[in-house]
């Protein structure tokens, strides 16, 4: 089953490089495929490349759990799971085959299915990590019942490499849906949000929904009878499923429009609000992509007025691309960083200048 994925345990080299950094007091810039180099601040440090640390450590499809090394490509993992009729539900982007599993967890980026299936963090069962004392530690396990250290594994999701070097990840997987159908309906954004709210109340099998240029795209997934009934109720035009990969990988024309790209995360059912630029509504409106040359402070004020936050997805636009943290939260992050990476060698300054 793992033949399509190169098998190489490069732990000794990774440990040696971390221990050398600790001894000499220099930072490390962790990288896999560098597919998310645009996200976050520039890191000054010696490059620590995980791409040679690959392979499936354990996979039994009947257990719905897979354990892989961090340098394994997300595209290779997806192909392996698909060959067994399974998938990783958060639908993380593979960025044209460059993204690695370690980077997938560290960034916690997820695709169109995330609001209905859960986040990357929700599917992390356990990890192996080289921590800030140069030790190779194991947290969590391969089954949900094994919760020892499980919280730290979940903390690593979205940490952008600032808490340690992920070397191995155990992930919960699920069977592929039995039937999928993609539709497009001609409606304005306000009507689209109203329809999506009603469909959620009615528990329709929606697993993807985005609106752009007066067109609502909807994906239905589940059993044949359930999908067929929902398809009849919704109407609209049936479209190719490729649109979801194009959205996930940011290949839609919207993402090449020119202005800086921002991601606004807002509460579910947040009403429409005028934003300074072109907008694509994703995650049924909970994620709002904004192409805008407006000043970062103005965009963040708009996000805050909606009860959410904004992240800049274009490198070099904002020196603090992630949402600035309140002082009490920054202190918490600094204490956590000091405990797990006391010498501050892992991706220093990637998320915030003083972290």
UniProtKB/TrEMBL annotation:
PROSITE patterns: FAD_PCMH (PS51387). The keyword GTP-binding does not apply. It holds the Pfam family FAD_binding_4. Residues 1-176 form the FAD-binding PCMH-type domain. One of its GO terms (molecular function) is catalytic activity. Keywords: FAD, Flavoprotein. NCBIfam families: PRK11282.1 (NF008439). This is Glycolate oxidase FAD binding subunit.
């Amino acid at each position: 089953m793992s033949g399509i994925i190169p098998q190489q345990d490069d732990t000794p080299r990774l440990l040696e490089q971390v221990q050398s950094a600790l001894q000499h007091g220099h930072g490390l810039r962790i990288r896999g495929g560098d597919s998310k180099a645009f996200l976050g601040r520039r890191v000054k440090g010696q490059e620590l490349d995980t791409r040679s640390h690959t392979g499936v450590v354990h996979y039994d499809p009947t257990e719905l759990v897979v354990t892989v090394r961090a340098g394994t490509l997300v595209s290779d993992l997806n192909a392996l799971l698909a060959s067994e009729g399974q998938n990783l539900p958060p639908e993380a982007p593979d960025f044209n085959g460059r993204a690695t599993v370690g980077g997938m967890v560290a960034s916690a980026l997820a695709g169109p299915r995330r609001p209905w299936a859960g986040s990357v963090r929700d599917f992390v069962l356990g990890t192996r990590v080289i921590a800030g004392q140069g030790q190779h530690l194991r947290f969590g396990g391969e089954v949900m019942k094994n919760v020892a250290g499980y919280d730290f594994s979940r903390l690593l999701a979205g940490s952008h490499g600032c808490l340690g070097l992920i070397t191995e990840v155990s992930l919960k997987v699920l069977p592929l849906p039995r039937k999928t159908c993609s539709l497009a309906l001609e409606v304005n954004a306000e009507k689209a949000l109203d329809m999506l709210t009603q469909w959620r109340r009615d528990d329709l099998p929606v697993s993807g929904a985005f609106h752009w240029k007066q067109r609502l795209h909807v994906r239905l997934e589940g059993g044949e009878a359930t999908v067929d009934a929902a398809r009849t109720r919704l109407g609209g035009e049936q479209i190719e499923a490729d649109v979801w990969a194009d959205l996930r990988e940011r290949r839609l024309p919207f993402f090449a429009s020119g202005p800086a790209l921002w991601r606004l995360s807002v509460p579910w059912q947040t009403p429409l609000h005028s934003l300074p630029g072109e907008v694509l509504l994703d995650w049924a409106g909970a994620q709002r992509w904004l192409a805008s040359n407006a000043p970062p402070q103005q965009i963040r004020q708009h996000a805050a007025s909606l009860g959410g936050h904004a992240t800049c997805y274009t490198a070099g636009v904002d020196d603090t691309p992630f949402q600035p943290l309140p002082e009490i939260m920054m202190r918490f992050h600094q204490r956590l960083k000091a405990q797990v990476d006391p010498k501050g060698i892992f991706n220093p300054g990637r998320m915030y200048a003083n972290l």
